Every structure is written in structure tokens, then in C-alpha cells.
Amino acid sequence: MESASERVLNLIEKVNKMDEVEIMMYNMAAAGIGVSVTWFIGFPTETEDEADYSYDFIQRRRHKIT
Are 64 and 25 in contact (CB under 8 A)? Predict the structure, then answer.
């Protein structure tokens, strides 16, 4: 999930979409499967708002992440 920003994901050529990540996280947690994410802050051209959005995305879903 390296970033919650679609723009940043496109820059690093990731094919995952955040709406799909949301569904996968929900389904895995509901099935009792541990969820782990890798993300980073500071990709070149990433804005402070995009970094904050990624952080907030993780914070709002902490209960689903092991």
C-alpha cells in the first residue's frame, strides 16, 4: 500500500487502487486474517497533504492492522 494517494501510487507505478485496498483490508480482517501494510512518507513530489492523508488512512484503520 506504499501510499494512500492515488497520484503517488501512479508515480511509483503501483496498480493497486485504494478502494480495492479498503475492501481487501475489510475482508481479511473479517475472515480473521492478519493485515499488515507497508507505507512510506516522503516520496519525491509528495505533498504534505498527501502524506497526512496516508497517515490518517492508517490511523483510521488501526483496528484492522496487526
Answer: yes
Amino acid found at 41:
I
Q: Which residues of the chain have pLDDT under 50?
A: none
Q: Cα(3)–Cα(58) distance, rounded to whole angstroms? A: 10
Q: Is 6 left (phi over 0), alpha (psi -120 to 50) or beta?
A: alpha
pTM assigned to the model: 0.80
CA 26, 46, 7, 10 dihedral sign is negative
Q: Is the distance from CB of 36 to CB of 66 less than 8 angstroms?
A: yes
